[in-house]
Design brief:
By secondary structure, the chain is of the alpha/beta class. The chain has a single domain (19-401), classed as TIM Barrel. Helix content is 38%, strand content 11%. The chain has a six-stranded parallel β-sheet with strand order 3-5-6-7-8-9.
Length: 403
C-alpha cells in the first residue's frame, strides 16, 4: 500500500447507489426468490461504479459496497445491516433500533451500551434530533434490530463470493490490478440484543470466528479487506453516563483482541482498518478524542489505518501523529474530504491536509481518503464532486511532495 511516486487515492467504502439498484434492492426484500435479474444488474452496476471511480481519479477502488443492500438513498446503516443476512443465530424482526425505549445504563466498572435514543450526543441535542425538519436523520427508513437467539455462524459464503467475483471482473474490465472490499468488525457485529450468550465477551469472540470467514474469502481472492469498526471509537458515545477513560479502554480491549483473533495469520498488507466515530449527521460533541484511542487503534494487526480527519470535529487531530510511532511497513489513509458536509472541499485544502500527514509519517505512507462512506450520506452529485476534489488535491500534493 506504500506510495512510490504519487499519492494514492481511495475512499472509505460506500458510494451512492443508482436508482435502479435501490429499486432492485427493494424488490429483492419483497421477493428474495427472484435473483437472476438482480444478480445481472448488480454485476453490471459494480462494473459501472468501478469505471466511475477510475474517471474520478481513484487509484485504490472497491465495489461501492454495492453487495451490501441499501434500503434507501439515505441510509446510515448499510455497512452493518448487510451482516444480518450473513450471520446465523439471529432472529430477525423487532423494533427500529432508533426507536428502542428500553433504557440500558452503564455502571462504574461495568460498561454496557445504551439504546440509540439514549446515546449522549442525542440526549444533549434532544430538540434537534426530535425535530421532524432536522437535517440529522431526515429520510432514513426504520431498520429492525435482530436478536441473537442461537450460536453465531457465518452463512454468507455465496454472498461474499458473489462480491469477490463482481469486483474482480470490474477491476479487470477497468484496468485495475486490485481493490478492496469492506467487511464488518466483530465488535460492531456484536452490537445486537443477546438472548443466547452468557456475556458480551463470548458474543464478541463468536462474531470474530464467524466474520473471519468473510475476511479470509476476500484476502484469498487477492483483494484487500477493509474492516469497518465504529465499535472502537463510536461506542464511547453509546455509554451513558460517560465512563472513565480507563474503563472504556478496558471495555474496548476485548473488541481489539477479538478482531486480532479474527485476522490471526492473515497477511497484514491485505488488511485495512477503518476507525469511525459514526457517520450520522449530528453535532458529535461527545466523540472520544483521537489521542485517547490512537494507540488502541495501532494495536490492531492491520497494514493500513483509515480514520476521520477531514470533518470539523476531528481535523485538528492530525497533530496527534507527532506523538505516535507508525511502524515502517504500515500506511495511513486519513479522511481529507468529509461526508459530514455538503460543502465540496477545495483541492488546495485537500492537498494541505495530505501534506500535514506526510510531513510526519512520510509521503510514501499517506493514502488520500474520505472520512467515511459517501453513499447514503450526501447527494450523489456532491459525492462525486468530493471524489474529484480528493483526486485533484492528491495531484497537487504529489507535485509538491515529489518536486
Amino acid at each position: 500500500m506504500h506510495n512510490t511516486d504519487f499519492i494514492q487515492v481511495s475512499h472509505a467504502g460506500s458510494l451512492p447507489r443508482t436508482p435502479e439498484l435501490l429499486a432492485a434492492n427493494a424488490a429483492q426484500a419483497e421477493n428474495p426468490g427472484d435473483t437472476a435479474a438482480f444478480e445481472d444488474l448488480l454485476a453490471g452496476s459494480v462494473k459501472d461504479i468501478v469505471a466511475k471511480q477510475r474517471e474520478a481519479g481513484v487509484t485504490l477502488p472497491n465495489d461501492g459496497e454495492y453487495g451490501h443492500t441499501m434500503s434507501n438513498s439515505v441510509d446510515y446503516g448499510a455497512w452493518w445491516n448487510y451482516s444480518f443476512a450473513r450471520l446465523g443465530g439471529l432472529s430477525q424482526g423487532g423494533v427500529d433500533r432508533w426507536q428502542m425505549t428500553e433504557e440500558i445504563r452503564s455502571e462504574p466498572g461495568h460498561i454496557r451500551l445504551t439504546t440509540m435514543r439514549d446515546r449522549r450526543d442525542r440526549v444533549r441535542f434532544n430538540e434537534a434530533y426530535n425535530d421532524p425538519n432536522s437535517f440529522i436523520l431526515t429520510g432514513r427508513k426504520p431498520v429492525a434490530q435482530p436478536t441473537v437467539t442461537g450460536p453465531i455462524t457465518y452463512i454468507g459464503q455465496e454472498a461474499v463470493q458473489r462480491d469477490v467475483v463482481n469486483l474482480k471482473a470490474a477491476l479487470a474490465a477497468n484496468g485495475y490490478e486490485t481493490g478492496f472490499l469492506p467487511a464488518l468488525s466483530p465488535g460492531s457485529a456484536s452490537r445486537l440484543l443477546n438472548e443466547y450468550y452468557q456475556d458480551e465477551e463470548e458474543l464478541v469472540f463468536a462474531c470474530a470466528d464467524a466474520m473471519r470467514e468473510e475476511y479470509k474469502a476476500i484476502i484469498d481472492a487477492g483483494l484487500t479487506v477493509q474492516i469497518d469498526d465504529p465499535s472502537i471509537a463510536e461506542n464511547w458515545d453509546m455509554i451513558n453516563p460517560e465512563p472513565s477513560l480507563e474503563d472504556y479502554l478496558k471495555f474496548t480491549q476485548v473488541r481489539v483482541e477479538a478482531l486480532n483473533h479474527a485476522i490471526r495469520g492473515l497477511p497484514q498488507e491485505q488488511i485495512r482498518f477503518h476507525l469511525c466515530w459514526g457517520s450520522w449527521h449530528g453535532p458529535h460533541t461527545t466523540d472520544i478524542p483521537f489521542k485517547d484511542i490512537a494507540q488502541t487503534m495501532l494495536s490492531i494487526n492491520a497494514g493500513s489505518y483509515s480514520f476521520e480527519a477531514g470533518n470539523v470535529r476531528h481535523e485538528h487531530e492530525w497533530k496527534v501523529w507527532r506523538e505516535l510511532d507508525l511502524p515502517e511497513e504500515k500506511t495511513i489513509a486519513p479522511g481529507v474530504v468529509s461526508h459530514a458536509t455538503n460543502v465540496v472541499e477545495h483541492p488546495e485544502l485537500v492537498a494541505d491536509r495530505i501534506e500535514n500527514f506526510a510531513s510526519i509519517v512520510g509521503r510514501e505512507r499517506v493514502i488520500a481518503s474520505t472520512d467515511c462512506g459517501l453513499g447514503g450520506r450526501v447527494h450523489p452529485q456532491i459525492a462525486w464532486a468530493k471524489l474529484e476534489a480528493l483526486s485533484e488535491g492528491a495531484r497537487l500534493a504529489t507535485q509538491r511532495l515529489w518536486a
